[in-house]
Amino acid sequence: MKTMKVLLEDHEIPRQWYNIQADLPTPMRPPLHPATGKPVGPEDLAPIFPMNLIEQEVSTERWIDIPEEVLEKYLIWRPTPLCRARNFEKLLNAPVKIYYKMEGNSPAGSHKPNTAIPQAYYNKIAGIKHLSTETGAGQWGSALSMACQMFGLGCRVFMVKVSYEQKPYRRMMMNVWGAECIPSPSNLTEAGRNVLAEHPDSPGSLGIAISEAIEDAIAHPQAKYSLGSVLNHVMLHQTIIGLEAQKQMAKIGVYPDVVMGCAGGGSNFAGISLPYVRDKIHGKDVKIVGAEPTSCPTLTRGPFAYDFGDLAKKTPLLPMHTLGHDYVPAPIHAGGLRYHGMAPIVSHLVMDNLVEARAYHQIDTFEAGVMWARSEGFIPAPETCHVIAAVVDEARRAKEEGKEKVILFNWSGHGMVDLASYDAYLTGKLIPYEMPDEEIARALRAIEGFPKP
Ligand SMILES: *Cc1c(COP(=O)(O)O)cnc(C)c1O
After folding, report:
1. Distance CA 293, CA 364 (A)
2. Which CATH architecture does the domain made up of 68-109+233-447 adopt?
3. Cα distance between residue 328 and residue 429, in whole Å
């Protein structure tokens, strides 16, 4: 029989996460304190994160043990299958073998529980009772709601208003898991009130929602803040994806020529690719590609610079590719991945030429997603459609070059709660939007005069 998927038994689940910081050829620039311009220390982060997660954030240990309590929750749906997309391959008619990690089978429907669960766990054992967070389309908010419920924590989610109104189902998921979901900008925080005073009709942005969630966490004793992407400890937790993939590919004696993921804040891309970046650092010939939207081209058009993670400048200055912290996504973009910054780890790897980035229009991404659904069945999340567009592109290149290639990519989540975006695509309401140069120049004025990395 032909191999369609490679499974790991429960007992084969990786028991440690991989920390790329132990293997980087050049050291990462530190986050800076905005007032002093000096590197931030663990104590600067203590008001918003518990110390055990701060330790992971700055750790340079190569392997970090996954606690038993976290493994027990992972085992609800992990190890995830490594699948071969034979039907999609047939459709593409190119000399490629396509494997993907199925992260859409988690209870929340994406890779995000891989970090939500350990974050809730570490907060719990640090004595925290409540987490505040932000969410865009609701994937992260729903994953953290579930994780908080599993560990008996309260959870409040500030959801970007335009998504709150257009995508009610993830709010309902959060409510089912016992969390509170508030449209952002809200009048619960000073950050939200300031935006509303100037722009009463603001559609919201992730930058605004992060400010609200941080302010909310700081204002409540025994509450902390939680972030679903971007930070080093989030990338760390997501490496379970790539570590499983390596075990699975070894079982069938295959090694990928290309590893791909879509990149919003960078966590699912880092999750599948960091173990392969390690191989590449040690001489392996593997291409690693992140796919992002042309409407939010952080890696492909944003400079590598120090910038805030949020609009109200409550985070440290992070060294990352950025479009400027006051970036507000064009409301005509339906595909997600709309954060102004990119994980410092992913940004650093782009600088060091260990990974590369490509940008795709939303029409191309939904076209690829529909091709996938019509051949492989599963309906991908709009974010996932970006990496599928990149796979189509890579297959076309392989055909032109007449070269056989093995592609591995991360199928980051399903689109069952995002069907309104597919509807917009199928009824011709989407346009191929590209962020204009003037808008990038305007947005980047927000970081003028900041320290340079
Ligand atoms: C959140 C999300 C992404 C983007 O976030 P990253 O941190 O870049 O991974 C991609 N795909 C899905 C399905 C998501 O929910």
Report:
1. 10
2. 3-Layer(aba) Sandwich (3.40)
3. 21
Contact yes or no for 328/203 (Cβ under 8 A): yes
CA 216 to centroid of ligand 1, rounded, Å: 24
Verify whether ligand 1 is closer than 6 Å to residue 298 (CB atom): no
Does the beta carbon of 203 sit less than 6 angstroms from any atom of ligand 1?
Answer: no
Residue 16, C-beta contacts closer than 8 angstroms, at least 6 positions apart? 63, 64, 65, 66
Ligand 1 centroid to 262 CA: how many Å? Answer: 7
pTM: 0.97
**Among the listed residues 372, 425, 418, 394, the one whose alpha carbon sits nearest the alpha carbon of residue 102:** 372
**Which atom of ligand 1 is the closest one to the Cα of 380?**
13
Site to substitute for ligand 1 among 80, 105, 112, 234, most atoms within 8 A of C-beta: 112
Is the CB of 112 inside a 6 Å radius of any atom of ligand 1? Answer: yes
Residue nearest to atom 4 of ligand 1 (CA): 264
Which among 436, 451, 134, 135 is positioned nearest to 307, based on CA atoms? 451
Rg over alpha carbons for the chain, rounded to the nearest Å, is 20
Q: Which tokens belong to 426?
A: 């199928």
**Distance separating alpha carbons of residues 240 and 236, to the nearest angstrom:** 8
5-6/82-84 β-pairing: antiparallel
Please tell me the residue having the least CA distance from ligand 1 atom 5. 264
Q: Please tell me the distance from the alpha carbon of residue 212 to that of residue 256, in angstroms, as a whole number.
A: 42
To which H or E segment does residue 294 belong? none
Q: Residue 349: which of 310, 322, 320 has the closest Cα?
A: 320
Amino acid at 202: S
Per-residue pLDDT 10s for the chain (453 aa) are 899 999 999 999 999 999 999 999 999 999 999 999 999 999 999 999 999 999 999 999 999 999 999 999 999 999 999 999 999 999 999 999 999 999 999 999 999 999 999 999 999 999 999 999 999 889 999 999 999 999 999 999 999 998 899 889 999 999 999 999 999 999 999 999 999 999 999 999 888 999 999 999 999 999 999 999 999 999 999 999 999 999 999 999 999 999 999 999 999 999 999 999 999 999 999 999 999 999 999 999 999 999 999 888 889 999 999 999 988 777 766 677 888 999 999 999 999 999 999 999 999 999 999 999 999 999 999 999 999 999 999 999 999 999 999 999 999 999 999 998 999 999 999 988 899 999 999 999 999 999 999
CB crowding 400-415: b at 16 or more within 10 Å, else e = eeeeebbbbbbbbbbb
